[in-house]
What we know:
The complex is a heterodimer of chains A (630) and B (237). With 630 residues, chain A is an alpha+beta fold. In chain A, a hairpin with a 5-residue loop joins strand 7 (587-593) and strand 8 (599-610). Chain A is flat and about 95 Å long. Chain A has helices at residues 3-27, 29-34, 43-47, 52-69, 76-84, 89-120, 140-168, 172-200, 208-216, 219-225, 242-266, 279-301, 310-328, 339-357, 394-409, 455-459, 462-469, 472-482, 505-512, 515-519, 524-537, 540-548, 572-577, 615-629, and strands at residues 375-379, 388-391, 432-440, 446-454, 488-497, 556-566, 587-593, 599-610. The relative contact order of chain A is 0.08. In chain A, helix 9 crosses helix 10. Chain B has 237 residues and is α/β, with parallel strands linked by helices. Chain B has 2 domains: 1-74 and 146-237, P-loop containing nucleotide triphosphate hydrolases (Rossmann fold, 3-Layer(aba) Sandwich); 80-144, no CATH class. Chain B is built from 9 helices and 10 strands. Chain B has helices at residues 40-47, 69-73, 90-100, 106-116, 129-142, 159-176, 187-193, 211-217, 223-231; strands at residues 2-11, 14-24, 29-34, 55-60, 63-64, 75-78, 147-151, 179-183, 196-201, 204-210. In chain B, helix 4 (106-116) runs antiparallel to helix 5. Chain B is globular. Chain A binds chain B through residues 2-5, 7-8, 12, 75-81, 83-91, 268-270, and chain B through 11, 42, 45, 48-52, 67-69, 72-73, 75, 77, 79, 81-86, 96, 98-101.
Amino acid sequence: MNKALFKENLKRFWPISLAGFIFYFLNGPFTLLSATRGEQVYDAVISAAGYVGFLILDCLLPVAVAAAVFSYLFKPNSTTLMHSLPFSRRLLFVSNGLSGLLLSVLPVLINKIIMIALVLGGRVRFTLTSWNGEGVEESVLVTMLTALLTHIAVIAFVYAMSCVSAVISGSSVINVLTSCGLNLLTTFVLMSSIVYSQYFLKGYCSGDETMRLAAHLHPAPYFVMSSPGLGYYNFEWPMIHPAISALIYIAVAALIAAAAYFIYTKRPNERAGDSYVFDVVGLIIGTIMVYFGSSFVGFIFINTEGFGIWGFVLGGAIALLIGQMIIKKSVRIFNAELIKPLLLSVLVMGLVFGAYSLDLFGYEKRTPNPEKVGFARIDGIMYSCSGGLLFKEKESIEALTEFHRELVASEDVLGSDQDSSHVPDIYNRDAKRYIIISYALPGGGEIKRSYIVPVSLMRGSASFKELIMYAENEKVYEQLLAYGPSQIGLEFWDCYDRYYGGYTTEEFYASLGPLHDSYEKFSDEEKMELWKTLISESGGPEKTFELACSNGEPYFSGVIAAYVDHEVASPYNTYVDNSQAHDSYIHNFQRIYNEDGKVVAVREEFIFEVTPESEKSLELIYRLIDKYSE
Amino acid sequence: MIQVSSLVKKFGSFTALNGLDLCVETGSIYGLVGVNGSGKTTLIKQLTGVLRPDSGEIKFDGEEVYDNISVKKRTAYIPDELYFLGNYNLKSMGEFYRGLYENWNAERFNTMAADFGLSKTDRICRFSKGMQKQAAFILAMSTMPDYLILDEPIDGLDPIMRKKLWGYILGDVAEKQLTVLVSSHNLRELEGICDSIGILSNGRIRFQGKLDELRQDLQDMSLEELFIHAMEGKEDA
Lengths: 630, 237
């Protein structure tokens, strides 16, 4: 590193850093000090890795700083001067790069130090939330230093991408645009691929897996979405400490910076002033513009009569021409040089359409090997509820994959995602189900598909019946009897009033509503009797299959939920970690938080449908309500 | 000594330099002349390490120039189109150069600034074109270079300043064996100060030699006449 150049950059570009410092200060220390001291909880501001107030500048400041320290690359005379001075290219890149990194990191570093001083000095009361919501508390200092590390990771990553942009760009405006584009590119590509998949691939389901992948591609969305301090769920499974994630992103940033250095050593200085200094980069970026332009216009008009595929052609053509004008810095683009980007764009768009329409990667036909599935679930089979069933046993998982294969083979009778009128909700009598099948694979992977399935197919499917009738579904109810009355709570949740049958929703709710208040007064014997009756009348798998294949027949039910709260460290906590994959119609887990946002328990819920046919249960409930409400 | 052999530089399909050979003796002044677009600036940017040759060699006293810090520290370059760091004055530019060049001579810097009558505290971007050229010259000469590469150095300078400028250069050539390569369209001026000249055309040196010997061979033809002669394809006369 050349100290003179390093110092010179700090002297020249410190105002950018100062502006950044002021922004961070207003969002950090100033926010803490300006509110009522000692009464507010500043969890997000102080400890959250994904604190948006800071993340905005984490993403913008490095772009501005990189544009400044590498600004000499964008004019022929400044390029000439800097490269004629006694520097090697390595020295130029390293000195400029490191000075820029310091200018980018310094503002957040100083502000975080101020915040740490405020908290440790007792000026600001701070209630700690652990990084994974499990109540495993770290010291305030460690938490705050972890948050600082995550901000540095975002800055380093964005800055490294901006360095790549600087060394491939030939003008300052193009550099800033490219820098923003590079940082957003992976997320945009993923988002567009979701849109293509939704349109072209039968069974495509964008779920947690897609979100997880999208978030992992850039540290900024990753830390926002994984930050418990912001109220988002942590989707990482197995969970990784934010400090480890930050270090991984910093390592990736170092690799990107190394790539930028390598490109810099090849940079043709005579191209300074052009949009891009490498023809191949111009070609690639032109093609990317065509891809997004074509996709954007194409999907806007895809359902418009008379457009169809022509929307893609129109969008691609407009993007090609505008892109080439920007890249060539001229409106005179109608010449032989246009042929190459045109052909490449046609080739790429052809590959995109070919890959999706022909399902080149076998997405539609893919079903997992049951041996390699940790657990699986099927959602949307119930008419009355959007919940589903969870399977952990090998036989159940085999039956599910068999049913899945049956759905894949029955492609012709499945509904289309595009026809939303066929998607039934809980108030829709349409005899189709919006079914989601998901498999959790070892190592955190997931296969997830969604289908619109005619109930007639489900009713006639041997594999579906086999799936529902497995003993695994019975065991769930049996667990409840293992708990004592003092451990179990009860709530009347909701009422599904389909087609009356002599009752109205209001009447049914009014009749069962007092159940929750009365329940606490029940004796232990009465509680146990109620459980046994509910379980005996729940119908088990037979009832589940009947409801799943009800074809919209009228029925009437309420839902009673029994719950047991477990200590945080219970094995059930691991179920909750994998997002909502364990949420089940009849068996559900959720975390219980206290007022400070700390997890205090894991609640295990058992849900019973109570219909007019549940005569014994209803008789008992009404009798007990009458007894204790007097 | 500056030795260039078989130098090739292409810009896309255009060949700017096509197997160029050139030699500048230590302690001499070499005048590089050529028509517009002949490749003078391209050659100079390669001599100063700004551009990388596609093939061929450029050696200063046997050392490659490209990415060679030790050679660059002994080389000063004044380009045709000048550039100074944003909002800097002569003093701050001098401080920047002092950190880069080990042989930086602060005394010469101060003396030359006074001699040329330039303010060290006014922003250089507010200087006239001629004053900026003087500033670049002061900075270049204060690095105490062994090699001086000048691209149209007297463009925009008045006769008095030109005389001063050449005075400093000739002084260093005589005293410390400064090796100078100067590109200019002002052939009369070059004729008065150059030891050797090279005429560049279509990416090659078409004519190269010591000015005194050339004059004898060509019956005291002026440099301007010699240039026109060479450009008309009569170099074999």
